[in-house]
Write a structure and sequence with these properties.
Shape: elongated
Oligomer: single chain
Order of helices and strands: EHHEEHHHEEEHHEEEEEHHEEEHHHE
Radius of gyration: 25 Å
Number of strands: 15
Structural class: alpha+beta
Helix content: 25-40%
């Protein structure tokens, strides 16, 4: 048996830390003297103490360390891998925000004018469309396109339709707000808080037909963009998606918040396995009634004339291959015709889910604007 001082030196933890870990049931001493209360540790506990110290250096919360310590080594390794994947994802989000702030504070304001005439700022041409599909009994999607706000939400649960509608409605005030690139992320974050509260309100209402309280598994995804005149601010939570078509290349600019995507990120699944995984629709993040709201991804994208953006629910991406989506976005000029073709392609492949999409083109001033619901 080692005294607490000797054990602390051997495992390179302080006696104070060891006392804390004892209180938190992270690392109990092998024996406590009943008269003096002095702690004694077994040599075999050194490996456990080092594991706790290493996990603390990773930044793992103490409550999470307690869970990891209770696992067998292979399961503990998987849990540590999953924890680190989440840390890297959160770090990537903060890195994007830091990059924006550095760029915003060190770059003079852009003047979005035509290089020859000094006129015609950038603006959007847009269309939105939502369809029930061929299998579902109701449409729980919401799609919206306005002069500044583009949004797609995919509701789930007994109150999924009003939840998705309420989340999008909470963003619509930004269509009439004076916006700058410097303020839009803060405004968008506030709007998402409003959307979260709207979903919670839906979860506390009564179902129209049954009278039952709508509280079981109610929520919605939300993928939206807000136009500032030179940039698009993106907010994203869930597995709806946003794509950018630029110079003929299609780029996915959101990251799915799903169990399967996290397993892909960790190398535990191949893309082929992910496409047929039985839990591929299980969300890790969404707007729900949970007391601790999940944080969405927020970032800014510089826009260029000629860019085309697509926002869509997973009813499109699960039914239509990406190469077909790219071909339709590339070959059909008008946004409203493009949304119609995308919905038709999903339904031609069985229409297994509600499908919604928003297409927005960045053009020089003078292009016509439109909205299709």
């Amino acid at each position: 048996m080692l005294t607490i001082g000797a054990f602390a030196r051997a495992c390179r933890l302080s006696p104070k830390a060891l006392r804390l870990y004892d209180e938190l049931d992270l690392l109990r001493p092998a024996r406590v003297d009943p008269d003096t209360g002095y702690r004694y540790y077994a040599v075999e506990q050194l490996e456990q103490a080092r594991l706790v110290a290493w996990l603390r250096r990773l930044g793992m919360p103490l409550a999470h360390i307690r869970q990891v310590r209770a696992l067998e080594p292979p399961a503990a390794a998987r849990e540590i891998r999953a924890f680190w994947a989440r840390v890297e994802a959160e770090t990537a989000t903060r890195r994007d925000l830091a990059t924006f702030l550095v760029d915003h504070l060190s770059t003079p304001p852009r003047k979005d004018t035509h290089p020859m005439t000094g006129t015609n700022p950038l603006e959007l041409r847009y269309a939105a469309r939502t369809d029930i599909g061929l299998v579902r009994a109701a449409n729980q999607d919401t799609a919206y396109a306005g002069s500044r706000v583009l949004a797609v939400a995919d509701g789930f649960g007994p109150g999924g339709a009003p939840a998705s509608a309420a989340a999008v409605e909470a963003l619509k005030f930004l269509d009439s707000e004076p916006l700058t690139a410097g303020s839009v992320l803060n405004l968008l974050e506030d709007a998402v808080q409003g959307a979260t509260q709207a979903v919670r309100d839906i979860a506390g209402t009564r179902h129209e037909k049954t009278g039952d309280e709508v509280t079981d598994d109610v929520g919605t995804t939300l993928t939206a963009m807000v136009w500032t005149g030179s940039r698009l601010a993106l907010v994203h939570i869930g597995d709806s998606r946003a794509y950018l078509l630029r110079d003929g290349e299609l780029f996915l600019i959101t990251h799915d918040h799903t169990l399967v995507q996290s397993m892909l990120d960790e190398g535990r699944l191949t893309p082929e396995e992910a496409s047929t995984h039985p839990q591929r629709t299980l969300l890790l993040k969404a707007l729900t009634k949970a007391p601790a709201p999940a944080s969405p991804d927020l970032r800014l994208h510089d826009a260029q004339a000629g860019d085309r953006y697509l926002l869509c629910s997973d009813g499109l991406t699960r039914a239509v291959p990406e190469h077909t989506i790219r071909a339709l976005l590339t070959t059909i000029p008008a946004p409203d015709a493009t949304t119609a073709a995308l919905v038709a392609a999903a339904n031609a492949n069985g229409g297994p889910d509600n499908v919604s999409c928003v297409v927005a083109d960045v053009v020089r001033g003078g292009g016509s604007r439109m909205r299709v619901q």
